[in-house]
Each structure stands twice: as C-alpha cells, then as structure tokens.
Amino acid sequence: MGQTILIKQQWTTAQKLKALEAGGKKRNRPAGGWIADLAAQKRAITLCGPCTPKFNPARVGYRKEKEFPVVRAKCDGCSTDDLFCTLYIYEEIYSQVRSTAEERRALAKSREQRIQRGSL
Amino acid sequence: MQYRGNFSGSTPYIVRYKVSATGLAPGVIVCAAPDGSSGEIIVTAATATANQVGSLLDAANSRTGETLTYSTTQGAEEAAYSVIVNPDQILRALMVSGATGTAMTQDTIATASSNGLTWVGGTSVASPDMDQGTVWYTSGANVGRSRKITSTGATVTGTVIVPFAANAVGDTILYAGISPGLQGITLTTSVQNARADIAVATGVNVTTISMECNGANDSYVSVVLTDHVFAQTT
Q: Complex ipTM, two decimals?
C-alpha cells in the first residue's frame, strides 16, 4: 500500500506578502472560499462563463445583474480578465448602486397615476 | 448615486482599485488619489471633483462592520474595491435639499399669474439663484409640467419664456438649480444625492443629461462625469 508524504511548504515572507496582493484569490486558496469571503464583505462579484455555474447568488443574498448580461472584469474565480463576465451585486445595496429600466418604469407609471389624481 | 448605463451603450468595465481614504460607500463617485496617497482612489468632495475614476460598487463588511478603508497593519489584507470605470457612464442621483439630504423644499404659489409666464412663491429663488434652473408644478392646473427658468428678478418671483397655464394661489411647485446641459451639481455631505437648492453650475464636475421631475421625495437627475481620468487629462 502506497504512502503519501505531506511536505509542509516553507513560504518566505516575500511569498506571503505577494499572496496578499489584490486582484484575485490567495495562493493555494480554493476559488469557492475566496468568493465566499467576497460575498461576506458585500463586494461586487464578477465571474466568467466557466466559473458562473459554480456560484449560487441567491444563497448568499446576491442579485445577478440582468440589464447588463455581460461586463468586462477580472473573474473572481479564475483571475482571468474576461469580456463576458457576469456581475453579481449584494441585494441590499443593489438599488443604491444601480438604476434599472424596470425601476424607472415603475416610477414613471406612479408619476402618471399621481398626475391623474392631481398631485405629484 | 446609481449607475444607469453608458452613453455608448457598451458594457460596464469593472476594475478593483486600492482605496486611499475613508468615507467610501456604495454608489459614490471615486477619484484618482493625489501624489503621496496610500492607495489609488479617494471619494469625491461634495462641491468639486477632479480626476474622476468611476462609481463604487462595493459595501462594507457585513460580518465585521468594517468600513471601506485601508489598513496600515502589517500583513492585513489590502483594501481594493470594485469601480465601474467607463468614462461615459451615466449616473442617477436623487434630488434633495440641504447638506444632509432632506426632501426637496416645496413652495406654494402666493399670487396667481394668468399669463403663466411668472410664478410668485413664498421662498426666494434669487438667492441661491435658480436662474437657468428648472421649475415644475406638483399640483394645480400645471401638475407635472416643467419649464426652464429664464429669470429670477424679484426675490420670490421666477420667470419662464414658454408659458404655463394660468396658476392659482395654493398650487405647489418644486424648482432646482439643475438643468440639462449645465455642468456642476453640488452633492450632499454623503456625496450620494444631488442638491437642488444650490445655484446652477456650481459643484462637482458632472453635466446633467436629463431630469425626472416628480415629487419632493422622488425626483432624480441623470448626469455624466466630465473630469474623468480615462477621458481627459486636466
């Protein structure tokens, strides 16, 4: 029966600091864990086509951006700069950072009704 | 402020930048940090903004309550947050009154005008000067109609060139020192909303594209950034 020998990696200080650089998940970190951390911090999450199916936005209170089906960004899953990423925004702040046609349509309809009643 | 889209109709381009200041909140305009700063972006000021980078998408940490700022602790994670960087982006802001962003101040017609070319209210439109701004009725025969203000000669009297229908005492109006095509809007202290009670063409470097003239609590202005680092060098 074969045996697996685990050798502890001796990271240097320079390697540790480099791993803290912005722009993607940490060294030796599973992409899922990195994205879960982003979600816990209410950060916008951008995922490329292959990484998108691995993320369940509803489970962590995120809303998929549908008015812009694609955005250009660096994928949070695989750190690839991609022209066709999907954007997820934390649901609670969505209306604070985004104005959608759907929302403006509802406001226009409300305005029309208020005008008919004689007061805005 | 809310990101609405781009002039060109292109897709949003999102980049994470290192923050260099406190006061960052979702939706604010961020600008390039000056020389010697710890990071790359700072939050815009309420009355002036130069070297805009875009609008911020991220929020504070929901678990720790940590704010969007950087840490000087050795080994701490670097604070880099998502910004929509398109230079032609359109932002939408709620129009409010005052630095803290209360509802717009509604005025009431005190003297009727039969020709519809003037209105006489109860509050001053001369200081701050609303000339070249926008006025609209929120009740009465002109409810929902808006006009560009062309003169504010007397303290509480404003003039338009394109006449309204005759108004009546008690009709209510809203006005704003904001008009499409004009550059400059003063923001609230939170830099999230647009102040309608400041004279036209003063404030941050944005130009008004359009206005949604509704009630005191739900009127909006859409603007484009006019001092963007990826569009021009100033």
A: 0.88
